[in-house]
Amino acid sequence: MTADLSAIIVNFRSAGKAAACAATLREGFEREGIAGEIVLVDCGSGAGERAELARVSADVRVLLPENRGYSGGLNAGLARANGRCLLLSNADVEYRPGALTALLEAASEKRTGAAAPRLEWDAAGRLLLPPGFDPGFLTEIALRRGTGSGARDARRFAAFARDSVRLWTAGGAARHLAGTVLASRRDVFDRAGRFDERFPFEYEETEWEDRVRRCGLELRAVPAARVRHLWGSSAVPDPETTRRREVSRRVFREDRYGTVGRRILERAERRGVQKPLPPLPRLEEPELPARAGTWVGISPHASGFPFAGTHLSTPFRLPDEVRAAMPRGPWFWTVFSSDNGHPFERYTREEA
Questions:
Q1: Do 346 and 164 form a contact (C-beta atoms < 8 A)?
Q2: SS3 string of the chain?
Q3: pLDDT tens profile 97-112
Q4: How far apart are CA 56 and CA 238, in angstroms?
Q5: How high does pLDDT run on average in the chain?
Q6: Nearby residues of 67 by Cβ (< 8 Å), 6 or more positions away
């Protein structure tokens, strides 16, 4: 029997998170009356994890002998899924009530090529992760050189902030969607093709979304679909992961910008920020008071974006579970207008 929705979970050495993800999917199917199936794909995690994966609630299991990356894992899952609509999911995701219905409805619209939920970082769902980020050539160059303090830096930040708040609160058309969770119809894959396995880690969704848009289809953010993303927790921080990311980035830049463009970006990346960063007030505590009409963006980048963000209509303190997951180093806090995205206060805080 054909399912309404096939959820494909791609796992690599994160069976515990995959089990939690599958459990929230199963609950969502039952609660929302969706005829759904769960396709669990493991990308060569090894024999040590197989016993734990056997306990994950899945209808179909695809145990790949090697790590084909997220792109290859998705393709293997797509080959086994029978649903009219496909839900592509990282393992470190937990689905909130109503998320599946909202995604299914959005993806079922003919003009929609792919739909993505609102990604919430903390358990309470207040701190929101970027809805997507594809800066383009000139902005990527500027981000490598900018310090977040000049007028041009402020304009770039404001443009990103306005779009992020719009997608988080109202949703609608987007230039790019984060690939953590994507819902799409089977006929979209028939038109745009499957994922390019030249991308072993990251950039696979950006390249695929470019093809979807070239088909005349829309990328849509769906804020009514809320999921918690345990950001970065499923990525294994080892030299192989770093190598795979570098391969994907090189292939992506070569395809989009050509050899010369790729080399320019790589040179800018090696040189980094040319000017010294301006001195910023230090936040002694990871918190800010309420301030009407404002949001705060929290980013590891000197430019201040892309960022995780939240409104400041009430006081905000960074949740302990988020702080535990944050990479070490300086994090930049930018307070900005909810109306126009203009930044007017910046702070820094070192996370250890």
A1: no
A2: CCCCEEEEEEECCCHHHHHHHHHHHHHHHHHHCCCEEEEEEEECCCHHHHHHHCCCCCCEEEEECCCCHHHHHHHHHHHHCCCCEEEEEECCEEECCCHHHHHHHHHCCCCEEEEEEEEECCCCCCCECCCCCCCCHHHHHHHHHCCCCCHHHHHHHHHHHHHHHHHHHCCEEECCCCCCEEEEEHHHHHHHCCCCCCCCCCCHHHHHHHHHHHCCCEEEEEEEEEEEECCCCCCCCCHHHHHHHHHHHHHHHHHHHHHHHHHHHHHHHHHCCCCCCCCCCECCCCEECCCCCEEEEEECCCCCCCCEEEECCCCEECCHHHHHHCCCEEEEEEEEECCCCCEEEEEEEEEC
A3: 999 999 999 999 999 9
A4: 25
A5: 93
A6: 12, 43, 44, 200
Domains and CATH numbers, the chain: 5-118+175-229 (3.90.550.10), 135-174+237-352 (no CATH)
Separation of alpha carbons 25 and 37, rounded Å = 9
Looking up tokens 């997220």 gives 70
Cβ within 8 Å of residue 343, ≥6 positions away: 154, 157, 158, 161, 304, 334, 335, 336
Report d(CA 14, CA 91) in Å as an integer: 7
Give the distance, in angstroms, between the CA of residue 177 and the centroid of all CA atoms in the same chain: 7
Token pair, residue 263, equals 């080399």
Q: In angstroms, what CA-CA distances link 184 with 78, 191, 242, 245?
A: 11, 12, 29, 25
How far lies 242's CA from each of 247, 248, 282, in Å? Answer: 9, 10, 31
Distance, in Å, from the CA atom of 306 to the CA atom of 326, rounded to the nearest integer, reads 15
pLDDT digit string, tens, across residues 65-76: 999 999 999 999
pLDDT category at 235 given cuts 50, 70, 90 is: very low
Query: Do the beta carbons of residue 283 and residue 333 sit within 8 Å?
Result: yes
